[in-house]
């Protein structure tokens, strides 16, 4: 997925739960920010490496907790990273990098070159963002009704 699709997915899913949305959106963007930067700088050969691993999600959550001392923020960052991995799962995702060799020698250096599919996914992403903006209060109302009806407890903040 590309950024707008990741953001749209995070906004809609995050609104259905008591996830701090800004931290969740930052978390969903972190894997690409790290890995595309490493690839662009020539440190890694592929645009999916350290940031696209489960280990990074845990580390990002740990660092967020160390900085903020808020477990809701830390959990939102870690879950955002994991949501990113799920969103990218149509392609190769190095879930256990660097413990497992994913053969990045064949991966070209990251260069933004979106095709029709990527452009279509970004259109879907911006549509999700617009729909979220339009219906976010209804999503939150629905979430609160389900949680109240089922007697569920809030996990975040
Ligand atoms: Zn990615």
What is the topology?
Layout (H helix, E strand, L loop, with lengths): L2 H14 L4 H20 L13 H15 L2 H17 L28 H35 L7
Helix pairs in contact: 1-2, 1-4, 1-5, 2-4, 3-4
Tell me the overall shape: globular
Order of helices and strands: HHHHH
- Structural class by secondary-structure content: mainly alpha
Question: How many individual domains?
Answer: 1
The overall average pLDDT, rounded, is 88
Percent helix: 55-70%
Largest sheet: none
Q: Low-confidence parts lasting 5 or more residues at pLDDT below 50?
A: none
Protein model, in words:
The chain is mainly alpha-helical and 157 residues long. The chain has one domain. The chain contains five helices and no strands. 34% of the residues are buried. Bound molecules: zinc ion. Zinc ion binds next to helix 2. Residues 31-32, 48, 52, 84, 88 line the site of zinc ion.
